[in-house]
Amino acid sequence: MELQTRIPLTPSDNPIDYQSKLVLLGSCFVENIGAKLDYFKFQNLQNPFGILFHPVAIENLVQRAIEEKTYQQEEIFEQDGIWRCFDAHSDLRSDNPEAMLHLLNQRLKGAKVGLETSSHIVITLGTAWVYGHNTSGRMVANCHKVPQKQFTKRLLSVTEIEASLDQMVKLIQKVNPKAQIIFTISPVRHLKDGFIENQRSKAQLITALHQIINGHNVPYFPSYEIMMDELRDYRFYGKDMVHPNQLAVDYIWERFRSVWISENAFSVMEEVDAVQKGLLHRPFNPDSEAHQKFKTSLRNKITYLQERYPFMKFG
């Protein structure tokens, strides 16, 4: 008896292994997949400007990084003693304007290096709703709780999204033609926009994105569809009933792994997992001979991994 409909997935012929270098950009679902990649010690750069929800914000980061368009004083603003930038998430902030500009421009440099040297770039789109800053006329990545009257909210058209994604792909392919771009739609529902409005938003993203996928022959991983069709139950959501819970994240990660992680990496992932669990171990008697042997064995496992993969760092 089948109690679940499953989306058919085909393993990639260009999978991720421990030699791969990844860049992950976009909505908060990037953090879910990124946390898994961090745990298993894959080489990756995640959201250098913090979470970016809509395609124009991601395009802006990609373009500025590649074109080395550094941030200037007039592009940041002070609010309650803290300096921020409308192009970045609120995690990027400082109480000093020079330090804020330095932070933004350092992150831009890191993004440029990542985009130019990565083997895989995962881009996750969250919403098609955007806020235009009335004074500058620019679409912002984050409103930073600035009064609503300073912005105009609207839904990006399919044409606008398609143009933004097309520009994004072309920019990346120009500087890194070998990079494997992977698109996905975030399974997180933006219900603060409204139930119907969220569905309209996702529909716009999906329609535009599939035009790009067909036009540029880039792959799509169905995170949103897996959440909606394979995990059709609120037991897979967090307490807010909006974000996937850990069980759902683990499930979608396993589906992602089945498509995008090379089988050659599985044995190393198991070794890393054993080390990670060992580091979390809390002994009843830290001074016992058994625990000393356990610590020695754990150090040997870490050394063995780091000899083969020097980029791996363990806490």
UniProtKB/TrEMBL annotation:
Pfam family, one: GSCFA
Domain GSCFA: 21-256
Gene3D superfamilies documented for this protein: SGNH hydrolase
Signal peptide span: none
Record-given protein name: GSCFA domain-containing protein
